Every structure is written in structure tokens, then in C-alpha cells.
Amino acid sequence: MAEIRLPKVEQGQTKIRNVPIAVTPEGFWCCPSPVGFQKTLKSQKPLNKPKPSSPPPQVTVHKKQVPVTEKKPMTTPIKPAGTYGDQRTFTPVNHGISAPVVPERVPRPKVEHVPRNVAIEYGEPGTSDMKVILLGKQGFCVKLSVHKIVLMEHSCFFTDKLSGQEPGLSCLEIDDCEDVESYVETVGLMYCKEMKQRLIKQSVSRVLRILKVAELLGFNSCIQSCLEYLEAVPWVGEEEEDKVVSSVLRLQGEGIGVAPVLKRISSNVSNPPNDTISHIMELVLKSNEERGRREMKSVVLKLLRENNSLPSYAGPADVCNETVYTLSRSCLDSLLSLFKQAVELERSDKSVDSREPVVKQIALEADNLSWLLEILADRQSADEFALMWASQQELATLHSKLPIVSRHHVSCITARLFVGIGKGELLPAKDTRQLLLQTWLQPLINDYNWLQHGCRSFDRKVVEEGISRTILTLPLEDQQSILLTWLGSFLKAGDNCPNLQRAFEVWWRRTFIRPYSDAQGNVPHSDSSMASKQQD
């Protein structure tokens, strides 16, 4: 808490200038913030210029005579900042404010040197029995005319400072106030019957400042009203949410009940149910609405990527992986069943209209598998998926029996696996890589022309690089077998076949150049060894 001094008020001791405050039966206008006050001073015209002839503004004020000791007084316009209700009823009094006379040749003082003193009176005029002086930064000072009984009734802080003091003590100073405006607003709320109603139209940031001051003053009813406001009002943006949560957690550490506010961001259950992620994914996978399914797949994938950045102990990683693999097996079984149906329809020469629903379902299941593979690849857990896909020999056999328009979506899964292996996103065993190439490389080659022209997301260069790198991870004999088979297809299809020339060149050098280079490099070493033996 800021430094507190309890001096007695003597005549002429307090150098505070009385600034008019508009008082109405419904409340009063609070003083502006130091920043707003400084901006107001900057916006005034220079002191050495005559004032325009327009009449001065009329404001409703309460008469309050305070001795002024400055030699060059200034009239400071007050900017309304908020209103508060009053526990008492009183009648407003109208007064005119006249501008002071300033000598023309006096140089204009700098803004930071201008005294910024404001006086505010709460309750009925002339009934206050003590003063609270708020000393802010850069010389900003506010004198509050208040009622001791009101402060002691609402604030534990003021109760501790004022109880047991001698009757003549009627002034309390609070030094180094970081937010004078919030102090003024918080004290004003002590005179309100319905604090929650006064907070409704305020911003979250402003209520957080009031909450901080209320906490310092021990103003429990205000703290409760602020918490009720924060529990109900929307928090806009992550930054605002973080500010609210940090403020509320600070109160929680002091034993103040903040559970209703924190329920928005936390649950009583320490970990979310294991089936929650599964349920969300199932809803997405079963959706037949293309746009909604596509958008939610993107959203879920993005959110899961955010979870991947957390430490391993912070999230249910194993549970998520098990869920994805369970759904992947289900999609694979469904895809195999659809392929069998499509082959039967092709054999029976059914009409295109009868085959169209099955073709759409094949495309949907293939897209679902691609999405699940993307999730596993982001989590570096797709090795088992590669083995599952490489083991689908029956599916690969049925693939060749369907028209390319019905089957090409499946080749996108194969291409994604090759890209992942080429980038090191998944590291399946050698047997899995070899089986994957044997099972699915030729179906991919057969669909390659369609993929280039029929799939917007297909990147030919990336896929070719992934296939090449996957081939080059195998033993040299397996590289030769696969690349010679590819060469026969490439010489027939040309651009309609993946261009694996780089892999072919690397295999060529490994096979025909490196053995001789290594042998020549070993000759000098062998000669030197023989010469050393002869010398011995």
C-alpha cells in the first residue's frame, strides 16, 4: 500500500486549489485522469494571448472556499469521467466560472510544471467531516471531501487508519498513488446503493483498475460487485482474458472466493474426459456437409498443433494418439468395404447415378484418413499408420479395378506418407518402407496424371522429392529394383509419371562410381602399409 500520513489540518496548511465539480441529485462528475488532465492543459491556448469574447461555460458546482497560495492561478476545465449515485438527496446550485486575469508578458509555464490540483466533495454539500488527499505522480493532487462514517463502514483500510484516532484528526494523505482516477471512482462507489449498475457500462480494463484499488482499500462489497461483473461480461481477446485471470488469481491467493469467474476457463475435473477428443473427431468425420467439415478439420488440426507445443506432461498425448489410431482403423475398414462395393457396381454395369454415392463416400473416407494422418504426423506418431497403410494389399488390388476418377483420392494418402518419410516427419522401419513402396508406388504412378491436374493441393515437386528420398533409404539392391521398374514406366508415360531422375542419379553414382572411388582412395593407404612392413 502507498505511504500514509495522518496530519492535522491547520488553516493555510493545505495548498489545494478548489476546482469546480458538477453536482446533481443523481451524483457528480469525477475528476479526469492525470493523462486526460495533462492533455486538457496542452489543448489550452497560450497564456500570453487574449481569451476570446465568448462567454465562459456554465457548470453546476458546490460553493467551497479554499485558500489559494499560488501567485498565478489557472482555471482548469473538468472533463466528465463517470457518475455515481448518492445515498443522500440534495439540491444543485449553479455558479458561473470566470477566467482569471493573467499578465500578458508572463512566459507560458511548461505543462509538467503546472500544478494539477483537484477538489471533489461527496455527499451533501458542506456535510463532510474529513479530507482524503491523493498524491499522484508528477505532482498531481486530488483532495476528497468525504464522510468518515462512510469510509469506515465500507473500507477495512480506512477503518484501521481512523478508528481510535483523536477527534481532531480530520485529514489523511495517501502518497504515490499509481492510479488516482481509480481511487476517486472507488471512493465514489462507497456512496452508491447499486454498485453493479454503475459498473455495467464500464470497460473490463477500467473495472480491473477499480478492483485493484478496492482490494487495497479492503472494500469487500466493491470487490464482490467487480467479480460479478467480470463473471458476466464477455472477455474480448486473449490479452484481456489473461489480465482478468491474473487479477482474479491474485485475489484467490488472498482467500477471496473467485470460483464463478474461474469456471469460465477451468473445470472441476483435473483432466478432460478421455472420450471428449474422440467425440469431437467422430462428429467431424461423420459430417456430410463439405464446407463445415473442411473448416472444422482445419480448426481442430490447428488447436491440436497448439497442444503439441505444450510439455508432454501437460496434455493427454497418448490418449489422443490412441483415439486417432482407433478412428483410422475404422476409416480403413470403411474404405475397404466401399472399394468392394464399387468393384461390384462396376462389374454389374450399373448406371453412373447408382455408383455416385459410393464414389462420394470413397472420397470422404480418403479425406478423413488424410486428415488423421496429418494429425499423427504433427505429433511425430505416424510410424504405425505407415505400417497399417503398407499392409493394405487387398485395397491396392481393388484399386486397379476401379476407374481413376473413383480411386485417385487414395493415392493422396500414399503421396503424403512419402512426403513425410522424405522430410523425416515419420521414421518407419526398413521393412515398412520397402513394403510401402512395393504396395503403393505403382498405384500412385497410375494415378499421377490425374493427381497433377485434378487435385489443387497436389505439389508435384514435393511428392517426387519425397518418393526419391524414401527409395534412397533402402539397401542398394532394393533401390535398383524399384528404380528400374520406375524407369520402364517413365519411358512410356513421360510427364504422366513421377520424375525420379535425382534418385536415379544418386543410385547410379552409388552403384557405378563410388566403389571405384573408394578403391582408388584405398590404394595409397595400402602401398604405404606395405612399404612400412618392408622397412621393418
TrEMBL record:
Positions of the BTB domain: 142-231
One BP annotation, GO: protein ubiquitination
At3g05675-like ankyrin-like domain span: 277-514
UniProt keyword list: Ubl conjugation pathway
SUPFAM superfamilies (alphabetical): POZ domain (SSF54695)
Pathway: Protein modification; protein ubiquitination
Role according to the record: May act as a substrate-specific adapter of an E3 ubiquitin-protein ligase complex (CUL3-RBX1-BTB) which mediates the ubiquitination and subsequent proteasomal degradation of target proteins.
Name under which the protein is recorded: BTB domain-containing protein
Species, as recorded: Gossypium darwinii
